Amino acid sequence: MLFNSVQFLFFFVIVTIIYFQLPYKFRWIHLLLASCYFYMVFFPVYILILGFTIVIDYFAGIYLEKLQGKNRKIFLILSLIANIGVLAVFKYYNFLNQNLGELLGVFGHQSPMPVLKILLPIGLSFHTFQAMSYTIEVYRNNVRAERNFGLYALYVMFYPQLVAGPIERPQNLLPQLRRQHDFDFEECKAGLMQMAFGFFKKVVIADRLAIVVDDVYGNVALQNGSTLVVATVFYAFQIYCDFSGYSDIAIGAARIMGIKLMTNFNAPYFSKSIAEFWKRWHISLSTWFKDYLYISLGGNRVSIPRWYINLLLVFLISGLWHGANWTFIIWGGLHGFYMLFGIWKNQLMKWMKIPQFRGFPIKLLNILATFMLVCFAWIFFRATNFSHALQIIRKIGGISFHDKWHFALNGVEMWFCVLLIVLLSLKEKYYMKIQTKNTAWFFVLIGAIAFGSYLLGVFNNKQFIYFQF
Amino acid sequence: MKRLFAYIALFVAMVLYAISCSNNCSERYTDARYEGPLPFSYDKFRYGDLFGISFLPEYKFELAKEPSYVKKQKYNIPKEINLYMTHDSYVGFHLGTDTNFYGITKIIHKEWFKGEPIQAVLDSSRINVLMFEVSERFFRYISDSITLKKEVEVYKDSSQLKQHTKPMAEKEPGFLKSVWDYIFNPQTNENLEFNAFDYHFITPLRELKAQLNYKLFGRISKEVVISNHNDHLYYAETIDTTQKSSSFNTLTEDEVRSSIAYLNATYKYYKALGFDEVYMTIVPNPISVLCPEREKYNELLPRIEHDSSLRMPMIRLYDIYRQSPTPVYYRSDTHWNDDGFTIWLNEFHRRLDALVKEKRGK
Lengths: 469, 362
Fold this sequence. Notes:
Order of helices and strands of chain B: HHHEHEEEHEHHHHEEHEHHHH
Radius of gyration of chain A: 23 Å
Number of domains of chain B: 2
Number of helices of chain B: 14
Oligomer: heterodimer
Helix content of chain A: 55-70%
CATH class of the largest domain in chain B: Alpha Beta
Helix content of chain B: 40-55%
Number of helices of chain A: 17
């Protein structure tokens, strides 16, 4: 079920109202059933895959807690293999097979493995990572194994964050699912406002920018450099509004029910370095990789070459997490290199004793430079394949003042897009919280956002970009 | 107060959701709304199907609920004809009243793509006529994907008809399957959009949105195109040169030849099965008649209809429509208006009259 669909609006109203009418002890059952339905609306049979990993990780958690010594590690590894195995089959098998085929083709052979005709289950990477987070935390004795199977299933399947995060940690979510939440009107207002603003970001900004981006990236051969630059910048904001809009709706929906999900975005395009960008962009994933992969590899407490390799590896895997395509791996690799260059730059400045300037122009320069680097990497993220991305970069390299702009939107709407981006940036920069304390003011504001979303929204039932991951 | 509001919201949401999960219930609810008070009725088709997509107030013209055929010519055709017809929404809309047709004892009809083939037992005491009606935008798909020979099955007597049973796969689903289909109906969202937001009293809001997008951003629904003189709405796929339904999509000479050969084979086949006559009519796309110069018209209709090798008798409309002094299409709908239909009806009757006279002469 898409968050930007009428069906979700009704589903949300029904599930939330019933949730507060039910006695506390039945609420988790209600939420679990609702979450199952929410997921099965996409493609019912894939609930079986989710069920498989839930059963494995539930028992793995219990045994990890009971067992001692080497056996614990074996159980953890088995659980991780089961989770990663599901990902490997459904997400990476055909990619690996295709590449193996190409490699063998060089030697005149064909891949011996058949091509699987399977659809990628929606949000597979998200809920698999959330499930893995649980077993790792139990293994590390940071959290007790959940005995209630239903509650554990709800931890993996909690509908607001089931298909596109935020990827929660058991320490944060499980206790909240057990706790009794009474209806809190203030939290309800704040949650509704966050949902409304997330919806606005999706249908008014992201889906409007998508018209330009899809048109330009869909016909690269016909475009000139400056058109591609505009489309790439638009894509940066499209993907941000699309994904952070989804997160806002998820966090808001959970908040109304009294459950606080982790923040997923924090004005990422105001980062002054790539390292800072990754502390502000898709926070639940970047902290996942930091906590469970980077630190497990030794982090920066290893030899310097190993540290660099660790960093690069984490970003390459992060790229692969997004999709089974070389473009995502290159995107991740690019960010890895950016990180390394950032470290080298700081070391060089330290060594040369160049003082760190902190004035506004330097800050602005850093923000712009970071944004440009991020945009450059987005080219690979958005391109359909590597040669497509190279074609775009070549065209951007040939940018000229004489380039003529041809966009799928007219001039007024293009400027409207720019205005939306500026307003969004101002809101993010100054962390303007939308007021919800005053109830009358709340109703006026939420009415205005809903009305604005309807009037200015682009309703084409476009999926959220991160659903495909 | 908050609790009361919550209960009302829950009740309304649950009722609408429950209705929308079932296509059947949605249809009934739609019918009830159409008959009900105006504010709760819907405007999807009231002002034309293209208005129902675009909601541009400039093209808001109420379509008559009851059709009128003031230009219908009187023919004195004896009631001797059994008419079998496969059609689309053009003729489909006007089939509600049998009184439209002269000389017809019974009509057995079906829509393209829907249901099982017509099962005919030809009555030798009658004149059996088979009619294919298709709009220009569907013609190339039909001559491509559907075997016209499968549209009508002819049986010697009605005892054979009874033996013709539904295949296993199309039998009524069991209880559990029905519940499953209800809960996970893929059309629930579409039904909900219609059942929750398509009300006459909401139309002004939709018009405001459409107007804002059009005037400010120059953007209207992708499915609709405005005519060069801003007086008509056209269905976009009849103009989009990349689509086969378009009047401006390239039509090769080979394709014309193969379509004609296909129609001739179909004609021969049904004549051999015992039909006294087989007709076809291709209803022109509005753009082909009103503004063929908008792009390069592929001349589908003239090239097919005037080809000397064509054996299938055609009820030709293109030339008549082009010369008609009065409009033959609605301004905000994909279909012909009552005058457009009446022209077709008169032409059809003229052919039936001639056919009956010819058969009587024999």
